[in-house]
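<instruction>
Derive structure tokens from the sequence

<record> Sequence and structure tokens follow
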Amino acid sequence: MTMHRRQFLSSAAIAGALLATGPSFAADTAQSVVEAYLAAWNAHDSTKAASYFADDVIYYDASVGTPVKGKETAKTGVIDNFLKAVPDAVWTMKGAPVVEGDRVSFEWEFSGTNTGAWADGTAATGKKFSFTGASMFSIKDGKIATQSDYYDALGFYKQLGLM
């Protein structure tokens, strides 16, 4: 009888530990998706970066105001646009991300030199820049379902000499 009680208590303790780590594991998965996405940007691999998007991703850039919808549109309209205009781009997470379930947010710094033309036809300025912002992601089934970026667009445009 004592042996069964010990086995039960031991099994209950293991099950409790597994349940307690469940939400943390889900958060770590969301965080690892975002970290891998950021690494692909920094490797200047737009195809790899876009592979972390859900097919129906919604990408919102507050400075533009209109969401970009769909994986291919977000790849060409956002990732390719930035990486072609700024081939030496560096996107750095500042501090640890805030992770809650399937949501990940972090403050960042984006820097580089504008040596390529922008997708809208704006010519390269050849100027170095560095600006800060924050991004919020939601992850669904291991893919980025939404990304919202908020940053100092005015400071960015001024550094490029566009304002």
